[in-house]
Amino acid sequence: MIEFVRGYIEYVCPEYIVIETAGVGYQIFTPNPFSFRPSHDTIVTVYTYQYVREDLMALYGFRTREERTLFAKLLQVSGIGPKGGLAILASGDVRQLVQAIEEENEAFLCKFPTIGKKTARQMILDLKGKLQGVILGATNDLFTSWEDEKQENAFDEALEVLKALGYADREIQKVAPALKKEPMSTDQYVKRALQLLLK
User: What are the boundaries of the region Domain III (predicted)?
Assistant: First the structure.
């Protein structure tokens, strides 16, 4: 198991990042890739989860161990795969998710892409009372912003991230007008869009 990868962010796209360390580039799928800024002068640590299936081997990365722990627990729920787990964690608000599970708030859980009533119920059955450790170490502000990003590119990139997370075009178009009201970075657009989509 790879505990973490530490190195420079070499590349960022809507689905994954590439970290270069010791001359090797690791492709790592993350909840919000644009929360990582490509930089050759700042070393970052990404906590990883290695996912192995008969037809797939992939690395999933997170800013904190608590976020990774929650991802691993989500994968244990029937009906949730890695893509669904990333979409759930992309909101960046671990406490809100854990609170919804503890309070059996199925309506909130069903707002995530690919999560229907049956899966939401299963999440509650499988995870309620088992996430206290996740809350203790979690932070609401998991992501950093890009201050020097061009506005139009930031907005377009955010829409691509939402599509990669599994949101339908009609859902994205509902929140797009509200997003354009103020200039933000890609990461801020994604977080704001997820807040609106989860209301």
Answer: 150-199
